[in-house]
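Posting this for the archive.
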Amino acid sequence: MKKILILYFSGAGATLKTAQLMHSYINTSENYAADIHSMEKDFKDNINSYDALIIGTPCYHCSPCNALVSFFSKLPKLTNKIPAMIFNSYSLFSCNTNRITAKIIKEKNINTVYDTAYRSPASDGTLIVPFIKRFFEFEKKYYAKIYQDCKNFLTIIDKEYKEYIPHFKLSAVINSPNKLIGSLLTLNIYTYENKCVKCDKCINDCPHHALYKNKENYPAFIKARCENCYRCIHHCPKNALSLSRNKTPVKTLREVYQII
């Protein structure tokens, strides 16, 4: 039986949902077994023991997340070449996210043989323009696409496969002003003390350590560390965090993903 490792990072939850669905599908196969692991944490086992990898990242300003970059910068070069499927979760454009990811992992002897992307709820758009319904939804035929992508990937690694780097997408040129503004602009996150119950969930769950306790034990924000995943806002059980100084979010992805 071949072993597949699914490595992912997820901010508000879209990439996690996709990774979990892939994990479930692969484990229904007679010839494959899958493990799943978040790139927020070091991987203690030997990646060389796996026959293939699936690597997933949210698309932040048309690039893979910092957690992916950090994870693979620390990973020693593998002794064996391992085939990989890479995917990203995006809300408007993913542009060259997969291309960048493929180049990063190739340095570690991990070779892309299949890549894909899924339009997913927007962690920023749902907070900034909550009246746009599309930002709360996955693309049509999302589940069927995951099933087909996994099936295609398993078929590829069952035979002699060809590695590649995804082609440069011209949409990246058109989207470059938006990418530049997004990468330079970090919005403030405000705490509504009348709603906050000081549970510390936002502080403990922040993958970038961008929140800490102030003197009154309320969460305070370190702007320089934030990557705009907004997990803190979307996962807050009391809707006590917001990008707005005047009001808390009308709706968050906590409801979409049914986070407890």
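The chain has ten helices and nine strands. The longest helix spans residues 142-157.
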